[in-house]
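I hope you will forgive my troubling you with a question about protein structure. I should value your view on which stretches of the chain appear to form regular backbone elements. Here, with my thanks, is the record as I have it:
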Amino acid sequence: MQFDLSRFSMAADDLLHAAIGPKNWNQVLNDLQAATQSDGVTILPVVGRVPGNPSSESLARPLERYFAEGWAERDYRARAAPLVLQRKVILDSDFMMPEDYGDEFFKFMSNFNLKYCALVVFRTQSDIACCAFHRRPDKPQFQAHDAHVLKGLSERLSLASSISRAVAESKVAGLSEAFDHMNLAVIFFNRAGQVVRMNGAAERLMGDDLNVSHGEIRAGTAEETRALRGCIHAAMGGSETLQDKRAVLIRRQGKRPLVIRCQRIGGFLNDYFSTIKAMAVIDDLDGQAIDKSQVIQSAFGLTPTETAIAMLLAHGEGIKDIADQRQISYETARTHIKYLFLKMGARRQSEVASMIMKIK
């Protein structure tokens, strides 16, 4: 099956345009798909795969399922990893036998009528990624002459992705400086959950209760460290649950706690090739003229009503008593309790009480 070489050349030239903005990555991948008689094109890192990858329009639904169902950790083609340092293009035939298509991964791919693949390997600084070209089972596999043409994309992709990364990181540098002017502490993380940048306001909060060592963020206790890292990874994974979006409370000796909220980088900063994938905003409650209810509300993202009910639960009040004291119906009280349990990550009244008692 012949490539449209003229269209392929134009799409390859457009990679630079994708890097600087006039044309986005998804549009260019649509063009590369058409030029190569493929049925889907996407870009994926060799390690550290998370949602948000550039892809042709046809792969939007398959990629959504790929991440939601955990196939990023079970991708059969990850077995090609030893070849990425040796070749610029990897075909299925370079590391697979015909019987390998019986693997469960290809049963998943068959749901979208996809089977064969060619991987174009490229580098962005120290990272290695692949541009994957997919074909249906009723089309021929990619052959050596196809690999010869695709090889020319490797350097183009490396250049374009490096430029795209530089542009994205200059935006982050500007945002970090703007946060400093607002005295807002922010820490930025890469796709592995490692710290790659923090602004001056965040640096001033570092100490025994919160610190960074060799790129890894740590809190004062193992429990808080697990909660914080879980919050970071949940943000990068695009989790939308209320429990994943709750804040992490970092207790400090002789001071009010730090409240940390994590979110995935989005909007104008959401460039796939940027090293920065998530950010944590730190709220320093020390020295603020606030009472305990305000700390609880800020720490868990509760509404004022939910905060008041949480404090009543912590004092051992039952649903009926809470409804009477708040002058609301029994069912309304139950609904408020249901949502505050979700936000706090609690299952029982005793857990709510324990969390609130830890706040000073």
Notes: The longest strand covers residues 255-264. The two ends are 70 Å apart (CA to CA). The chain has three domains: 5-165, 182-288, 289-360.
